[in-house]
Specification:
By secondary structure, the chain is of the alpha+beta class. 57% of the residues lie in helices and 15% in strands. The chain has four domains: 31-136, no CATH class; 146-224 and 389-395, 2-Layer Sandwich (Alpha-Beta Plaits); 227-383, Gyrase A, domain 2 (2-Layer Sandwich), CATH 3.30.1360.200; 399-561, Multidrug efflux transporter AcrB transmembrane domain (Multidrug efflux transporter AcrB transmembrane fold, Up-down Bundle). A hairpin with a 2-residue loop joins strand 10 and strand 11 (347-353).
Length: 574
């Protein structure tokens, strides 16, 4: 590979590293604390915040337009100018020279339009931060605390599933399986490091590190994977919509009206919901479905999320097992022309007319991307063997004291600085190259861990420190080989060529054996051990790239581009 191509490769990985590292830097160093709190709140809290802020700004504008309409728009709401410009262009009006309060408001048709623009700005600001947080490197329970949830197994639901009173062993087995499923749902990449343990005979304690979105955790805990397909009774739906309008206080508990005679036996009435701009379910209308399940979610083998090619809306595609495919084919054949409702946890999420029989693959719309991904994950990890009820939910502080964290971080910084200084003193200019490679190594490690939304704990940091030592060791081996070649009287280019060539397998052997050990440890270990192993494995790959590929490129750049014929690598060599 020639130097230009190697340079492009390094630039490419640097660009990728910056792309994945940006959310972490932006979240931890450039986001005000009050906005972090809002982004970690529920969608209802975000909606309240956006509406309150929009109302305040609208009141300010109303006062300004009365008292001083020719003043410039306040800086904090200057974003309105962009929307006003778009409206001026749309209405083919002359653009004003100065954007005063009056000219900006002239660009809107009503106060309601101004309010919606203001609300949209505040909503998108926080929702974008919420999305950004999901791409960052999280801090573990020991460093920043997290969320603690206690769930209790519902004995009645287990009795219903077993069709008998569960024994102590039944409950123990159900809890063990539930813990495994919950761990797979929360820790899908094996790097989140949740702590899930049995607290009593029928309770599970779950501690999720970092600033966790409570709604998302609850969806994993409570999501039963109960996605069923039912046929809609259109005539009964019209009757029940009319009935609900005449009886606005009716709640339809368990899908039935309080007066059982209102709705025929074998039918259920559920709400049809759609997400609003905040991602909150909004009731649309009532839908009456046949109680008999056409196909239940147990026949779903795989669920994946793809974007619609025309609308870009997320579609969930379910692939059914052979038995489910046959059932669904017969079901859709018998009901061609009827409306099919997709019901998840007693909510109608989508409804569509069956135009032709369907066998193996079902495509469903009506979900937003995050919800569709969560649903696919819940379905992939199987239904919980027992229903769980949340009985306690609260935030927990860092398990390590602030003094211990500060001391640990101080030790890490001092270690890095000591290594940097030693390399420069001992290997002079070559030591500086090793330090550059080491910095790039750290950037690549953090970028890769951020891309997987990994949780950083003290043990993970230990993995990084160990990796720093290994990365330096690789450079030391290479530099010593180069020094040997220089002592034989070889030129700079020949010494570098021979040094890297002779050191290559020594460096590879040491790193590959450690990498194999790290892979086994990541597969067999749990919690902090797994985090340490994953960090170490990622670090080894990065250190090999920087020590062998990047360092060699810098040496060759000095030789061929800068025209250097000597290497600054030792006090005794010139």
């Amino acid at each position: 590979m020639n130097k230009r191509l190697r340079f492009v490769v390094v630039l490419f990985f640097l660009g990728m590293g910056a792309y994945f590292l940006f959310p972490t830097v932006q979240w931890y160093f450039n986001t005000p604390e009050e906005k972090k709190i809002l982004a970690n709140g529920s969608k209802e809290q975000i909606r309240n915040y956006a509406k309150v802020e929009a109302s305040k700004d609208l009141e300010t504008l109303v006062e300004l337009v009365k008292d001083s309409p020719d003043e410039e728009l306040p800086e904090n709401i200057s974003f309105l100018i962009k929307a006003a410009k778009a409206n001026y262009k749309l209405e083919k009006l002359d653009m004003p020279k100065n954007w005063t309060v009056q000219t900006v408001l002239t660009g809107f048709q009503s106060g309601n339009e101004v309010f919606k623009t203001l609300e949209e700005y505040y909503r998108d600001d926080i929702l974008n931060l919420k999305a950004l947080k999901n791409k960052t490197l999280m801090l573990g329970l020991d460093l920043s605390g997290g969320m603690s949830v206690v769930v209790e197994a519902d004995t009645d639901s287990l009795s219903a599933r077993l069709d008998r009173t569960p024994t102590e062993d039944d409950m123990k087995e159900a809890l063990s399986l539930a813990m495994e499923i919950l761990n797979n749902r929360i820790d899908k990449f094996g790097v989140t490091e949740p702590q899930i343990r049995k607290q009593s005979n029928n309770q599970i304690l779950i501690e999720v590190p970092g600033e966790v979105d409570p709604e998302r955790v609850n969806s994993f805990l409570m999501g039963k994977g109960q996605l069923n397909f039912h046929i809609v009774d259109d005539a009964a739906t019209s009757r029940m919509i009319e009935y609900a309008a005449q009886n606005p206080g009716e709640t339809f508990e368990n899908g039935r009206p309080a007066d059982d005679s209102v709705l025929e036996a074998g039918l259920l009435v559920y709400g049809f919901y759609k997400k609003d701009n905040y991602g909150i379910d909004q009731f649309q209308r009532y839908v009456v479905i046949q109680e008999e399940v056409g196909l239940d979610g147990q026949h779903i083998q795989e669920a994946q999320v793809i974007a619609d090619q025309i609308t870009s809306q997320p579609n969930v595609i379910f692939n059914l097992d052979a038995e489910g495919g046959e059932i669904f084919y017969k079901f859709t054949s018998d009901n061609t022309g009827n409306t099919l409702a997709v019901v998840m946890d007693d909510k109608v999420k989508a409804a569509a007319r069956i135009s032709e029989p369907i066998r193996d693959s079902v495509r469903i719309t009506g979900f937003e991307t995050a919800e569709a991904n969560d649903l696919a994950l819940v379905l992939r990890t199987a239904a919980l063997p027992v229903d769980l009820k949340i009985i306690n939910e609260n935030a927990v502080g860092a398990s390590l004291g602030s003094d211990a964290i500060d001391a640990g971080l101080k030790a890490i910084m001092l270690g890095f600085i000591a290594v940097f200084i030693f390399m420069i003193i001992y290997y002079k200019g070559a030591g500086l190259i090793a330090d550059i490679a080491l910095i790039l190594n750290l950037i690549f490690i953090v970028a890769i861990l951020s891309s997987f939304n990994m949780t950083l704990t003290m043990t993970s940091i230990a993995g990084i420190i160990l990796n720093v030592g290994m990365a330096v060791d690789a450079n030391v081996i290479i530099f010593e080989r180069i020094k040997e070649e220089l002592r034989l009287g070889k030129s700079r280019s020949a010494a570098v060529e021979a040094g890297f060539k002779k050191a290559f397998w020594t460096v590879m052997d040491a790193n590959i054996t450690t990498f194999i050990a790290a892979i086994f440890l990541s597969q067999l270990g749990k919690g902090p051990i797994q985090g340490f192993a994953v960090t170490l494995a990622v670090g080894i790959v990065c250190s090999l790239f920087t020590a062998i590929f990047v360092s060699r490129l810098i040496f060759d750049f000095g030789t061929d581009v800068l025209g250097k014929d000597k290497i600054s690598i030792s006090w005794g060599l010139k």
